[in-house]
């Protein structure tokens, strides 16, 4: 396995999976994952056939599909049939809270409970067995910072997220925390040590000053205390109905954007894309116990646009287009010879390892095989 | 590309790296996560056995709501693979589901090799031979298997009947 790939590093703080000795826990762990984004359910919703997805996932799927079908069973569904699944949200939250302790209990070796294990000589494995790693939280997971729930649990939570960040810095030894790196998602440059946290927050635009964890808290406080209400228009928290994009004029689209204090720059396709994305974000934000503030939603929308703009600037879109031409494809093939050879060897080595493991079946089953 | 699509692709890569299906490997271009290279081994006990076939996958902004474009780099002889390497596979077109990931796509392509659908031929000759002359079909497949061991940049001489080699991509070999 190619553990050196730069893109893998960004998920290195993933929580460890349950060991193979606990298939029932592995199954439970899988059952709270959305089958579209493959991450833990956020604002779970159920469609007519009974399948459940993150609200944002299924809404954005439906917005792209020409004939709208359930991604799992292909039953015909409509956006109007989407219903909040409060029970699943509760189960998901409960599972997240319980997961860490269950991981500890399920470790075959008497593990170093909640303490950090001694740093591994080669901090290579993304699936290290240390029991203290946090499941990374997505941007829309600001629930822990939700001020309407400043219970002891949630404040603990914030602390924990922050502290796991500093642990991260200590564990990665080769790179100094002051080195700059590029975020693999949005390509923004920042101190390497702050990338995992940045990704967990869903790639907010990087400001020059250190983004202290208090920033977001302050945002929340502002929104909920309505201190900044002079700025925040009275937005009705009702689902937005999509306009007919074929008929809508740029002015119509700008009016919608204006209503939610969103930027109105750009031509019609840009405006349309912004409206579409906003409606998905806004409507799915209504499907959870822990909605995000409108300013957090705007920041997310902005981050998406910045990410796309960067790709364009760096010629990434162009590279994809280029691959569609005969010459571009031939050039890509010429340049990728070594990479293909490496991939081929990877399979060969893996097969050899598998054959070996099959011989010592019993011994390997308890150990996680990479 | 949107951060959602990138995040999903990183997750796909992680899954592919930590729990790879047999005979499959793939990896995104380090500078551009929208472009992936992959290698598929031919399924055992089929004419494609021992073949090591190269492919590229390109993803759009709408992934996983839209399927990736999959294209063989290696020269293939298969009823559902065009001579330029593009393939005709329902799950990559109208049967696509956003629940599929890269591992699932590559696994499907791998199983397509020995489970062709001659009803919708992309390579008429291969489809014809598959139906009428399986021996000859297998012989032709085996030449592509042998060719797959070499650098595909080398021009592979094939029976002229192998068809529109004009659209194929033989390119001068670069010293590696």
UniProtKB/TrEMBL annotation, chain A:
EC number assigned by the record: 2.3.2.27
Keyword match Zinc-finger: yes
Organism domain of life: Eukaryota
Chief place where the protein resides: nucleus
Family matches, as InterPro entries: Rad18, SAP_dom, Znf_C3HC4_RING-type, Znf_RING, Znf_RING/FYVE/PHD, Znf_RING_CS
One MF annotation (Gene Ontology) recorded for this entry: zinc ion binding
Pfam families the record matches: zf-C3HC4 (PF00097)
Domain SAP: 245-279
Catalyzed reactions: S-ubiquitinyl-[E2 ubiquitin-conjugating enzyme]-L-cysteine + [acceptor protein]-L-lysine = [E2 ubiquitin-conjugating enzyme]-L-cysteine + N(6)-ubiquitinyl-[acceptor protein]-L-lysine
Pathway: Protein modification; protein ubiquitination
Annotated compartments: Nucleus
Domain RING-type as annotated: residue spans: 34-74
Ranges of compositional bias, category Basic and acidic residues: 153-162
Family that this chain belongs to: Belongs to the RAD18 family.
UniProt name for this protein: Postreplication repair E3 ubiquitin-protein ligase RAD18
Species in which this protein is naturally found: Kockovaella imperatae
Automatic annotation (TrEMBL), chain B:
Region of interest: Disordered: 150-176
Gene Ontology biological process terms in this record: chromatin organization; DNA repair; sporulation resulting in formation of a cellular spore
Active site: 88 (glycyl thioester intermediate)
ATP-binding recorded as keyword: yes
Transmembrane segments: none
SMART domains per the UniProt record, alphabetical: UBCc (SM00212)
Signal peptide extent: none
Start and end residues of each UBC core domain: 4-150
EC class of the enzyme, as a word: transferase
Subcellular location: Cytoplasm; Nucleus
GO cellular component terms given for this protein: cytoplasm; nucleus
CDD domains, sorted: UBCc_UBE2A_2B
This protein's name: Ubiquitin-conjugating enzyme E2 2
Species in which this protein is naturally found: Kockovaella imperatae
Lineage: Eukaryota, Fungi, Dikarya, Basidiomycota, Agaricomycotina
């Amino acid at each position: 396995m190619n553990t050196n790939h730069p893109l893998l590093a960004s998920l290195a703080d993933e929580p460890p999976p349950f060991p193979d000795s606990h298939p029932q826990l592995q199954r439970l762990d899988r059952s709270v994952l959305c089958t579209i984004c493959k991450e833990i359910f956020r604002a779970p919703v159920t469609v007519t056939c009974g399948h459940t997805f993150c609200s944002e996932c299924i809404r954005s799927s439906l917005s792209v599909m020409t004939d709208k079908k359930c991604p799992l069973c292909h039953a015909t569904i409509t956006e109007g049939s989407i219903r909040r699944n409060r029970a699943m949200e509760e189960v998901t939250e409960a599972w997240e809270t319980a997961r860490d302790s269950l991981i500890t209990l399920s470790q075959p070796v008497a593990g170093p409970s909640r303490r950090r294990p001694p740093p591994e000589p080669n901090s290579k494995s993304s699936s290290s067995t240390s029991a203290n790693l946090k499941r990374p939280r997505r941007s829309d997971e600001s629930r822990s910072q939700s001020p309407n729930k400043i219970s002891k649990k949630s404040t603990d939570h914030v602390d924990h997220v922050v502290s796991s960040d500093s642990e991260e810095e200590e564990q990665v030894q080769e790179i100094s925390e002051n080195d700059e790196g590029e975020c693999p998602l949005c390509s923004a440059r920042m101190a390497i040590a702050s990338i995992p946290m940045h990704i967990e927050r869903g790639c907010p635009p990087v400001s020059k000053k250190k983004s202290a964890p208090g920033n977001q808290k302050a945002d929340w406080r502002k929104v909920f205390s309505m201190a900044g209400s002079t700025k925040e228009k009275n937005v009705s928290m009702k689902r937005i109905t999509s306009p007919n994009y074929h008929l809508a004029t740029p002015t119509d689209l700008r009016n919608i954007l204006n209503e939610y204090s969103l930027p109105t720059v750009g031509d019609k396709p840009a405006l349309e894309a912004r409206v579409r994305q906003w409606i998905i974000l806004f409507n799915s934000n209504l499907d959870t116990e822990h909605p995000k503030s409108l300013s957090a939603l705007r920041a997310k929308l902005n981050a998406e646009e910045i990410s796309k703009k960067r790709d364009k600037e760096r010629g990434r879109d162009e590279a994809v287009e280029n691959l569609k031409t005969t010459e571009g494809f031939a050039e890509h093939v010429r340049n990728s010879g070594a990479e293909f050879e490496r991939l081929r060897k990877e399979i060969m080595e893996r097969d050899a390892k598998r054959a070996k493991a099959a011989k010592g079946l019993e011994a390997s089953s308890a150990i996680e095989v990479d | 590309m949107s951060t959602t699509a990138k995040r999903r692709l990183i997750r796909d890569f992680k899954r592919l790296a930590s729990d790879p299906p047999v005979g499959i490997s793939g990896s995104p271009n380090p500078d551009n996560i929208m472009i992936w290279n992959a290698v598929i081994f031919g399924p055992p006990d089929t004419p494609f056995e021992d073949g090591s076939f190269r492919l590229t996958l390109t993803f759009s902004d709408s992934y996983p709501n839209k399927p990736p474009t999959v294209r063989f780099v290696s020269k293939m002889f298969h009823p559902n693979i065009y001579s330029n390497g593009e393939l005709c596979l329902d799950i990559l077109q109208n049967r696509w589901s956003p629940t599929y990931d890269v591992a699932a796509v590559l696994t499907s392509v791998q199983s397509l090799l020995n489970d062709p659908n001659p009803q919708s031929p992309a390579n008429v000759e291969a489809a014809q031979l598959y139906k009428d002359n399986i021996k000859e079909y297998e012989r032709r497949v085996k030449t592509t298997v042998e060719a797959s061991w070499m650098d595909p940049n080398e021009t592979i001489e094939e029976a002229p009947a192998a068809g529109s080699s004009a659209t194929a991509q033989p390119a001068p070999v670069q010293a590696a």
